[in-house]
Amino acid sequence: MSSFGALSTLQYVPGDSFLHRLDPRSKYGFVASYSISLVTSNSFTASLIYTLVALFLFLLSKLRLYLLWENIRGFLVFMIILSYFQIALNGVETAALMMLKMISFILMVTLLLSTTPPEKQMEGLRNLLSPLRRLGVKTESCAVMFTIAVIYLPLLLEDLMRIMQAQRVRGVQYGRWNLAGRGRDMILLLTPLLLTTFRRAERLSDAMESRCFRPGSERTAFYQLKLGKCDIIVLILALVLPFIHLSSE
Length: 249
Known about the structure:
By secondary structure, the chain is mostly helical. The chain contains 10 helices and no strands. It is 72% helix and 0% strand. Helix 5 (76-90) packs antiparallel against helix 6 (92-114).
């Protein structure tokens, strides 16, 4: 796993923890229920409890602790700017509440993506979206696009860092203050990055066509998803969590 900031945390981290063994559909259900309860919470105490739950699940997943710092560091500047405006407009308590919610949400999304292989993510999402086929929604295409985005965003960032390192070796200096210099730096970065992205997309399309992939067609799955006892318990918790949240508000 690469250490290139926030996008690198979207990658799957192999493991054998309790969260790694769960069915992706139960994870989707719990994360959705958790996120809805978190967003609608207006209590600082409840948000703190949600944050502690996310930290407990992070420890339960047996992921390395540096990943926790990578999650927060990638969004640190953004959270500080939002907190400044929240303090100026609504006070310190509202800013602290927003920070807790953002940290909790980032941790839960990272747990979902880091403990679920991309192929199981796509299969679970495809199964959950399958009822929408009756409404004419192309669920296969949605699942494929989501999986490709999760896989290729970290690779895109790695390509960007590799291009920047290669250009620095050749004497290119970034961080100019004038507008013309910054525009030239952006062109120097975007041109090889776009070429690399188009080449990667062409190779991906060739690989998908060689495997007879057709958008919207019925597909079989190598991984047969089955809900176990632990998955049923997680889904029950996902159903109960909003009622607990409503009763505590």
